Design the sequence.
């Protein structure tokens, strides 16, 4: 069996060679496949993006909001956060063909099959590179955790259940209604 | 596609009907399959068990150290097979039956990326709820270990240790596990 040392280390260059839409992320030099998102996961991501954009429109701010966009942190780490937000002031600096550097806010929606990466490795990289606010949504338990960067490390600022509101700090005044987020409506 | 509400709720009774050795745990009324462990998982388990047993013997501790497979039954929706458990002498009578009933004093889990979600989230909440005093989580990929301790009924991260460091147990004072045994 290969030890960790002999395993091939992939880089951001290798990652860029993957075909468009290939469902991978580069996490600590490993190509980690993302599971095909289920319909609930997608519905949550879309509603998150919609909520943030509506909020920005309401306060007449332009920020950048994207889903599953390549974010290049370093040569060993290129992620696709489920939803990201870059504030208006930083868009010119970091939003190029891809996002080059830490968004102000990253949101991940857990899938049991790869929650490990969102909870551990990606969280450490977000912390290391200064993603100011990191929201982890658990669609199974229907709750959300909001971490904010304090002196270089994340502290759990709020843990909210499905009938509560999650309050952002990088978007002051943005309050996410979790009961709406977790409603799963199927058209008849 | 079934919604969560319509999904069948499995119970502890359904769980005990599974054939012996079936690689499942009952987690919040769901039957979750455990992946076949990687070599590093079993090596970490072996080294930790070895060190813990040596400590138990040397200190005359009369608690139980149990390896999987061992069912630990918490409630109707939760029966787990932790990677390793320790039960103090005082609690053996109430917990050690044919299987384990209720919270061990210490639980160890070694993460596999494919099902770490359960160890980090759902099982952690149940361990916390039912009073597992100390919860140790090994991460063979990141080569670190987190030790959570119960305080006022909630877990706090008491220690995060990397390779080259010692993990210090709180409920077994003097048990210091040298991570160089497992993280090279």
Sequence:
């Amino acid at each position: 069996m290969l030890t960790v040392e002999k395993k091939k280390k992939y880089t951001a260059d290798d990652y860029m060679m993957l075909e468009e839409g290939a469902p991978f992320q580069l996490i600590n030099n490993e190509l980690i496949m993302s599971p095909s998102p289920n319909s609930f996961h997608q519905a949550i991501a879309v509603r998150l993006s919609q909520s943030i954009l509506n909020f920005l429109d309401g306060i007449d701010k332009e920020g950048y909001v994207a889903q599953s966009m390549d974010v290049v942190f370093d040569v060993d780490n290129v992620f696709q956060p489920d939803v990201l937000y870059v504030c208006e002031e930083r868009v010119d600096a970091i939003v190029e063909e891809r996002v080059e550097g830490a968004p102000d806010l990253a949101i991940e929606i857990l899938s049991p099959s790869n929650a490990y990466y969102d909870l551990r490795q990606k969280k450490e990289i977000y912390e290391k590179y200064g993603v100011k606010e990191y929201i982890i949504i658990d669609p199974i338990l229907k709750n959300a955790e909001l971490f904010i960067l304090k002196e270089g490390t994340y502290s759990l600022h709020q843990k909210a259940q499905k009938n509560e509101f999650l309050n952002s700090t990088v978007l002051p005044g943005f309050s996410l209604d979790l009961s709406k987020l977790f409603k799963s409506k199927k058209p008849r | 596609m079934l919604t969560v509400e319509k999904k069948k709720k499995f119970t502890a009774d359904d769980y005990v009907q599974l054939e012996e050795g079936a690689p499942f745990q009952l987690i919040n009324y769901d039957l979750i399959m455990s992946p076949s462990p990687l070599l590093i998982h079993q090596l970490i388990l072996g080294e930790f068990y070895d060190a813990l047993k040596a400590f138990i013997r040397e200190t005359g501790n009369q608690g139980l150290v149990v390896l999987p497979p061992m069912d630990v039954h918490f409630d109707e929706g939760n029966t787990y097979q932790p990677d390793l458990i320790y039960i103090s002498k005082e609690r053996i009578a109430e917990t050690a039956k044919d299987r384990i009933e209720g919270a061990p004093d210490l639980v160890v889990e070694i993460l596999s990326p494919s099902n770490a979600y359960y160890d980090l989230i759902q099982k952690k909440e149940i361990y916390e709820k039912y009073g597992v005093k100390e919860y140790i989580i090994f991460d063979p990929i990141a080569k670190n270990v987190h030790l959570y301790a119960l305080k006022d009924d909630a877990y706090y991260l008491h220690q995060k240790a990397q390779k080259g460091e010692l993990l210090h147990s709180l409920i077994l004072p003097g048990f210091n596990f040298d991570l160089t045994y497992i993280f090279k």
Summary: The longest strand of chain B covers residues 154-162. The domain at 37-181 of chain B is CATH 3.90.1570.10 (tt1808, chain A). Chain B has one domain: 37-181.
